[in-house]
Design a protein that fits this description.
about 240 residues; mainly alpha; Helix Hairpins; two-stranded parallel sheet; 2 strands
């Protein structure tokens, strides 16, 4: 068996797998980007709905005050109509007191109505601003998602080509070593074929590689694996 050739094939397979990993990373990033655009649009819509509810509550409180002012006007008119009917100074004074009390309450209510009117205007401007932001966000989402969807489609196509290439590459590797490689990948070792670095350590786990193993790799005596399980090779 030509161990050097087997290592070259394992390294080529790893290169293909690294390319697939990168394509998956790019696709994931595009999907997350699209999701973020949708989330931004949804968040703005929720904000608008919340602000509209706040506006409804302000209008409801204002309407209650306006009804209260109307009721006070009715009371004042009623008391004023009774002024000519009273038969004592005490009754007249009491009516005057009630009229004055109603007028004070009406003035306070009218002041609050003015406050609510200002708040209503501020709330409407806030909603208008958010609505403008939503329109821009929706437009951006449509434009950006079109680009992201193209990137996703490109990644899928490139990944399909690489998977086809990978199938051919894996078929050309001795079963024992192919299975060992797949086992490493399955257990989370994305780098299954590691270079022995200049300081004689494994590039995967950074543990020292013994001189004997280095000698056997260089002389193409056998395929060697690090204590971490990775296949080892020395760069020419």
């Amino acid at each position: 068996m030509d161990f050097l050739e087997t290592m070259k094939r394992l390294a080529a397979l790893q290169k293909t797998d690294s390319g697939l990993d990168e394509l998956e990373r790019l696709k994931k990033g595009s999907l997350q980007g699209a999701a973020a655009l949708d989330a931004n649009v949804s968040s703005l819509k929720e904000s608008i709905q919340a602000e509209k509810k706040n506006l409804e509550e302000l209008l409801k409180q204002r309407k209650t005050l306006e009804i209260e002012i109307g009721a006070l006007d009715t009371k004042i008119s009623k008391y004023q109509g009774q002024e000519n009917e009273v038969k004592s100074n005490e009754q007249f004074t009491a009516l005057k007191h009630e009229i004055e009390k109603c007028r004070e309450e009406k003035a306070q209510a009218e002041e609050k109505v003015l406050e609510f009117m200002f708040k209503d205007d501020e709330q409407k401007q806030k909603i208008q601003g958010l609505t403008g932001q939503l329109a821009q966000a929706e437009k951006k989402a449509v434009e950006d998602k079109k680009e992201l969807q193209q990137k996703i489609a490109d990644c899928d196509k490139a990944a399909a080509d690489k998977r086809e290439e990978r199938t051919k590459q894996a078929a050309e590797i001795d079963q024992e070593f192919a299975e060992g490689y797949e086992s490493l990948r399955t257990h989370g070792k994305k780098i299954a074929v590691a270079e022995v670095q200049e300081d004689q350590t494994c590039s995967g786990c950074h543990m020292n590689v013994s001189p004997q193993i280095l000698n056997e790799i260089r002389k193409n005596i056998a395929i060697q694996r690090c204590n971490c399980g990775r296949f080892l090779y020395v760069k020419d």
